[in-house]
Specification:
With 280 residues, the protein is of the alpha/beta class. The chain has twelve helices and ten strands. The strands form two sheets. The protein has a six-stranded mixed beta sheet, with helices on both faces.
């Protein structure tokens, strides 16, 4: 019995088996497989055009792969569309901010809970009984937990379109947390941020894992961030997995260095700079 319990605990929360995805004659993903361990931060990295966002879209249900399967908590979700995947605990952010710019911060965050609400359209029109209770409970949870956690109380009533870029990224994270995720997929969460904003986001990501118990899969180009916060790193190049392991192992992998930087004297100098940066 103990061995069976341990096996369940150690089972991957997400399994991708031999996913292949093509757009016309372009192979975006070729036989990609990966596991995401519960309670860990797994980073998916690679050069531009490596297939990272395509893989994210296949996992979250926005793309239907030509072959392969996706399992979430042991359940085959390959044929599920994006909304049911969100409802069972798979939430994500986007490379380009996907917020409703004319709505307030609070209203944008509340939209993240949409898949879990039980109120029907007719009940919502009258806003009495269950709709009212759900609204009160939802707002209390968002304000007391998510907004305070991400330190955005001062902007809760501000329209999103009027906020600086870094705060918009934080609001998008808040909306994803409102979805009650068990697996949180972050697509370039610090892209375009300055050093201070990046450090704040890194702190929030670590706290989401440590305090909320949420498993995280992250796509990111900032290698300093990846090396600092990741437990496991998977490297894609031209739609294929070329390396995987703990950050220190991947950092020393020659195939990874070539994929990012090429070979030759210039590549060697840049590789040394990247290694020194990651080790600092």
């Amino acid at each position: 019995m103990i061995e069976e319990a341990d096996a369940r605990v150690d089972a991957p929360i997400l399994q991708v088996e031999a996913i292949s995805l093509a757009f016309g004659g372009l192979n975006a993903l070729r036989n990609v497989s990966l596991d995401v361990v519960p309670g860990c931060i797994t980073a998916l990295v690679g050069p531009n055009g490596a297939g990272k966002t395509s893989l994210f879209n296949a996992i979250s249900g926005f793309y239907r792969p030509q072959s392969g399967r996706v399992f979430f908590e042991g359940r085959d979700i390959t044929r599920l569309s994006a909304p049911p995947r969100a409802k069972i605990g798979l939430a994500r952010t986007f490379q380009n901010i996907a917020l409703f710019r004319g709505l307030t911060v609070l209203d944008n965050i509340k939209l993240g809970r949409h898949a879990h609400l039980r109120t029907s359209l007719v009940e919502a029109l009258f806003y009495y009984g269950r709709p009212q209770r759900e609204e009160i409970e939802l707002r209390a949870e968002i304000e007391q937990r998510i907004i305070d956690f991400l330190e955005i109380d001062h902007i809760r009533h501000a329209p999103v379109g009027a906020l600086p870029y870094g705060l918009q990224k934080r609001v998008e994270l808040a909306r994803a947390l409102a979805m009650k995720p068990r697996l949180l997929m972050l697509d370039e969460p610090v892209a375009g941020m300055n050093r201070e904003e990046t450090e704040d986001m890194a702190r929030f990501i670590l706290d989401v894992r440590d305090e909320w118990g949420v498993t995280i899969l992250i796509v990111e180009h900032d290698m300093r961030l990846v090396m600092d916060i990741s437990d496991h790193v998977i490297v894609l190049n031209f739609g294929e997995v070329i390396a995987r392991g703990v950050p220190a192992e991947v950092q020393k992998n020659e195939e990874v260095a070539k994929a990012y930087l090429g070979s030759g004297e210039i590549g060697s100098q840049v590789r040394q700079s990247v290694t020194e940066m990651a080790a600092s």
